[in-house]
Design goal:
The chain is of the alpha+beta class. Helices cover 40% and strands 22% of the residues.
Length: 160
């Protein structure tokens, strides 16, 4: 809940459109690009996340500019938890815009139990307000988040 949006990022948010679950395969493919540093998404992982998406568990949030997909992220949603898996950008700030969009999607119904798990804090994510928390605090927050319903944007994906 401590998302920090700088003035320049606010400008980028205004310049891009955020969509959810409209380009999951493309987001996954961009995140799995073998030329990316730290590449970890191989064919079997991509197939597993594709299946999770088809089952309504994995979701993407995309940043679009002038009709072109320029960045995004994907992860798994379980109740009020969104476990982020990977993000990418082909335009400055596009992955950050997708993260802002994700937080807005999670906040849309005002349910305060939501939790975004980014797995680990990087300088990039820390600049956006990501904080590390002790394991016991995380487990308490996770227990509460899992009791929440899926955010409406992802619950609607079940209608696919």
């Amino acid at each position: 809940d401590g998302l920090r949006v700088s003035r320049s990022l606010r400008r980028s948010v205004r310049e891009m459109e955020v969509r959810g679950d409209t380009a999951f395969p493309e987001v996954l493919a961009a995140c799995a690009d073998p030329s990316r540093p730290g590449h970890w998404i191989d064919g079997s992982m991509a197939a597993a996340y594709t299946l999770l998406h088809e089952m309504g568990w994995a979701h993407s949030v995309e940043a679009w500019r002038d009709g072109e997909l320029v960045g995004g992220l994907y992860g798994v949603a379980i109740g009020g938890l969104f476990a982020g898996e990977s993000m990418y950008h082909h335009a400055p700030d596009a992955s950050k815009v997708a993260l802002v969009g994700l937080v807005e999607l999670l906040r849309a119904d005002g349910d305060p139990r939501r939790l975004v798990d980014v797995q680990w804090s990087t300088r990039h994510l820390a600049s956006l307000g990501v904080v590390e928390m002790p394991r016991t605090a995380y487990q308490r927050r996770l227990e509460v988040a899992l009791e929440a319903p899926l955010p409406p944007a992802f619950a609607d994906a079940d209608d696919r």
